[in-house]
Fold these 3 entries.
Entry 1:
Amino acid sequence: MRTKRLVGWSIGGALVVAWMAAATPSDPQVPERSVVLSPAARAAVTVPGFATEADRLRTFMSAPPAPHRPARNPFTFGGREAPAMSSPGESAPSGSAVAPEPPVVSPPAIDLIGIATERAADGSPVYTAIVSVDGLMRFLAVGEGVLPGTRVADIDAATVMLDDGTGVPRRLTLP
């Protein structure tokens, strides 16, 4: 058994060596080095208009713009100047005594994710709306409240109608 294994490994090794020797070229092609041209010869070989663009770039880069100083250095702590604040004894000028506007509060986002259907005992479909209210998923039936003052008015196979008491229903449809 040892002799057969030794012969098998020897033949396999010889085949691998022969394959690698055949894959290596005997006369590798060495690329020639690029020739350095004089400026006069270089101008004759170049693309038309290249010399004018190169000159324009040289004049532009002769005085490069100075880099701007950043307003904030992330590697230092407390590097920014403190904002100017008035002292408690000073009063604001009478022309600037305008009350700040209250922030606009947007209603929570209500998205219809899906509609689930069940069959009642009499065979009629009973729909349940699956909605997302500010990222929270809720399962709602007809008459249940979505938000304070808003309830589900109607659910059918593709839409959900919400009633917020203003008389204008809000319609949610499946995407």
Entry 2:
Amino acid sequence: MAEKVAKTESEWKQKLTPEQYHVTREAGTEPAFTGKYWKTKDAGTYHCVCCGQPLFDSSTKFDSGTGWPSFFKPADEGKVEEHKDKSYGMVRTEARCASCGAHLGHVFEDGPAPTGLRYCMNSAALDLKPKDKQ
């Protein structure tokens, strides 16, 4: 189980850019094909921009054609929590950081093998740590 990180809204606003705050703390979505990681192929680990928890390994990233970084599984079990999201008249599965509760994106059942899942994430919620700098 992930260690929980708690900050006030004021502390999050000081730490994050306005876009990062909107996406991670207000469950926003960046426009497709605009985030810095949607087409990145660099090797490394994607961490939560809010708390630094490792979330996804670049070896699980794939081009979904959606314009957002997509992964077929989290780096470790228990790092990403899934919640039912009924916003905008739809029922989807929301992905959140298990440590700080940051909204990351959504999970869909149209991904590649071996999981069949597509973790469709917002670049604004992620921080890529290159493999050679870990």
Entry 3:
Amino acid sequence: MKLKKPWWNQPGIQIASVLVALIIVGGIVGGIFLTQTPPEQPIAFPHNRHVAIGASCLYCHTGATLGPSAGLPGIEKCWGCHQQVQKQSPELTKLAGYVERNEAIPWVPVAIQPDFVHFKHSPHLNAGLQCSACHGDLSKMKVAEPQKGQNMGWCLQCHKNTAPEQWTKLSDCATCHY
């Protein structure tokens, strides 16, 4: 008499389990890769060069002082400086094309928060934090890069270390999730 194998030893169940595991691992690896890889931009914007000449982050990202998004510069902001720069480059030619067509530059945001997180830059700026505390040292980056490990635990640790007297408020879920 042949004994029936337990359900977990059935070939169909084992194959299905391996496929599900591969899909889950693939999703995790893909998600990590996509959130940690700088997106391709329509114009290769050299942050390091602009920081080196003394351009303030807030000059181009004016929304950081006003609302939830730092914002991305439009053609008026970029062309305001670059129409005076006589240097020729493929990237400035691209910028001139957007200006000629009166077309917004389709920048791809790099630092994106999930929809369930409501983040505002202004309290962080008012607390004296530098942009580099969260976005990394852009003076060393040709292209803005997503910062590794930027998650809720990272934020809570920063809140605990930089503002221990406000820990109760800053660790309350409703501060960022509303």
